[in-house]
Amino acid sequence: MSELSEAQIRSFQQSRGLSITGLVDAVTARALEEAKWKLGDRSLNFQSTPLMRGDDVAALQSRLTEMGFDCGRVDGIYGQRSELAVKEFQRSAGLVVDGKCGPETIIGLLRLTRIVSGGTPSAMRESATQRNRGPALANKVIVLNPAGDDTLIYDVALRTEGRLLALGASVFLTRGVSNSPTETERIAFTNQSGADLMISLHRDSYVNELAHGAATYFYGSDAHGVHSIVGERFASLVQREICARTDLVNCRTHAKAWDLLRLTRAPAVHINLGYVTSPSDVERISRSDFRDVIAEALVIAIQRLYLAAEDDAKTGTLRIADLRKAGIRR
């Protein structure tokens, strides 16, 4: 890793959907280690700790997914769900069923791979699951992740929580007023809660105070050729609602492979509500009325995610009062 130039590191980080710093931090070092493995380089199997990670695991997951076996998210991590999918494949192919991806299993995969028309099964499953949950928020579990110890972001989370609770949703916050769990703890908390959706709230920063605006991120990896269908749609809804209701500059939506998005099992988004280094953005979010508008935009985006196309409304026009009138509440 030491022989890589800053430009090479930046190029690698960009290709992997990581934060582009030009420095080999812990996340980049792990990604470099994962990138060196190709399918067939080693035997893959489930082990308690540490789990096997690598591009070879992602390639295996992609191939199994294309064949209709449910690995869950293509994340390059050989967990129990990957082991079960391998066993199902081995059973269907008449191989020894041991959950280990060795030479015989890899040869079987290469021989039998077929593409399912109409999109990958995992994408179709994710979309179908989201549609089948219905429009009402009363049976939804929403996790809000106010990042760091930012009191204004925490206030946005509280205002969003109140509106969601009034509509009947179950809401969990990953932190309280005074505690600040690690990212790993927040991911584990979200996964254990059985969340339908995870919303991570942040403010960005930059060396130049001219940088300003809002951006939303969802799970996607060009290196692995995958992205979250529901996450991408929700990111688009959130970004459009926020920018339609406020004067925050639209910095668009982006696919990233950050751990918070990659390892959270539910569709997840990371939202930057302006820059702490931008005086104009700070002035906006410091106003309670502005934070109310953001909270309403988030709730409406959540509701629009679950509405059928024919019941949806134009961006920026739907109000929480409309949801109550329509009976989309507890």
Describe, in short, the structure shown.
GO terms for molecular function: N-acetylmuramoyl-L-alanine amidase activity. This protein is an alpha/beta fold and 330 residues long.
Characterise the protein shown here.
This protein is an alpha/beta fold and 330 residues long. 45% of the residues lie in helices and 13% in strands. It is built from 13 helices and 7 strands. It has helices at 6-15, 26-35, 55-66, 80-93, 103-112, 121-132, 151-166, 183-192, 229-245, 259-263, 279-285, 288-306, 320-325, and strands spanning 141-146, 170-173, 197-204, 214-221, 226-227, 250-256, 268-275. Strands 1, 2, 3, 4, 5, 6 and 7 form a 7-stranded mixed sheet that branches. The radius of gyration is 21 Å and the shape is globular. The model is unreliable at 114-119 and 325-330 (pLDDT under 50). It holds the Pfam family Amidase_3.
Quickly count the helices.
Answer: 13
Assembly state of the chains shown: single chain
Total count of strands: 7
Largest sheet: 7 strands, mixed
CATH homologous superfamily assignment of the largest domain: Zn-dependent exopeptidases
| Total count of domains | 3
Category by helix and strand content: alpha/beta
Q: Which CATH first-tier class of the largest domain would you pick?
A: Alpha Beta
CATH architecture of the largest domain: 3-Layer(aba) Sandwich
Give the end-to-end Cα distance, rounded to a whole number of Å: 55 Å
